[in-house]
UniProtKB/TrEMBL annotation:
Name of the protein: Imidazolonepropionase
Organism: Antrihabitans cavernicola
Family: Belongs to the metallo-dependent hydrolases superfamily. HutI family.
Biological role: Catalyzes the hydrolytic cleavage of the carbon-nitrogen bond in imidazolone-5-propanoate to yield N-formimidoyl-L-glutamate. It is the third step in the universal histidine degradation pathway.
Residues binding 4-imidazolone-5-propanoate: R84, Y142, H169, Q235, T311
Amino acid sequence: MTSDRSQTTALTNIGTLITNDPTLGDGRLGIRHDAGVVFADGVVSWVGGSADTPSADVGHDLGGRAVLPGFVESHSHLVFAGDRAEEFASRMAGERYGAGGIRTTIEATRRATDEQLRANMMRLADESLRSGSTTLEIKTGYGQSTEHELRCATIAGAATSEVTLLAAHVPPPEYAGRVDDYVRMVVDEMIGVCAPHAKWIDVFCERGAFDRDQAHAVLSAGIAAGLKPRVHGNQLQAGPGVQLAVELGAASVDHVTHVTRADIDALAGSSTVATLLPGADFSTRSTYPDARALLDAGVTVALGADCNPGTSYTTSLPFCIAIAVRDLHMTPDEAVWAATAGGALALQRSDVGTLAIGSRADAIALAAPSHLHLAYRPGVALVDHVWRSGDLEYT
Ligand code: NIG
Ligand code: FE
């Protein structure tokens, strides 16, 4: 559902409003009660008390609902074919997750037509929007050849401007035992061809995928081609991913499930965001990251859903917030901030993740009086209104 962007929209009778702007309300979340908001020209133009809300072309009485900034999904892998439900079932029966399953999806993705890949991606992007994610990053990574990574990046660009070239996810089957040859091909050929279609460069720095030097080579080549770095690191065991991300000034390092004290200290002294992906730890039956240690050290933490067919086949940030609160011991306020303002920092975006004056009018309403219900009522589809750039997309 879309409307004329020149129309103004007033939201009134908001039970709990999260602005993420401390100048507009209480605490880091800038919380107000009995609030009103006005959207004009696709941005937030007014925030105040419900009774004082200026009139607008369109009015929504929220009946005491909570209103939050739309979630900022900074980590997803939506360009793929097939699924790996059997692999998931085997894991639940005791098998360990190994990155090798990624090759199953590479093979299925290479066989799929552009139209099949686009339709599957759009289905998942729509699912993500319905669960409240109004900004969406999408990675390639299931092509792993110049031809197929270009195809995946181009398809991702139809759904978002936040395209990440995950040029080095796992070495594809034709490079088995020749990982350095694959890295050379990525550096000498793939990145140059694909960079015009992406904003970010990413690498899976993990045993069984790419080691520190290989990851460094890929990220450096991406940076030289004008891309900004982000890293998959420290998912399956402690390793060099976090330190490499900090060293290269990456916007974020994602997973961060197995970290040392030195990793935490390095993150705390940096501008690199630690993006936690608890859906992946849930679905691989891994231990969860030590979010408390990260937060208590002053690390900036984001939450992502990491939708992909292997480790986390969910698009739901509300589900991840519930895990983050229940199992990662984040407070509901920390978890909501991480899925909104934290995601925005992970994408180096200042226009989303908050409902400050001038922010993009991306907001969600919950069928609940406060954001606490996102964790308190797990598995319930609470998001019942989604506005993007001021347009009501779902209700
Ligand atoms: O973010 N860690 C590497 N990549 C994905 C998993 C990909 C897969 O198993 O297909 C992740 O968890
Ligand atoms: Fe991922």
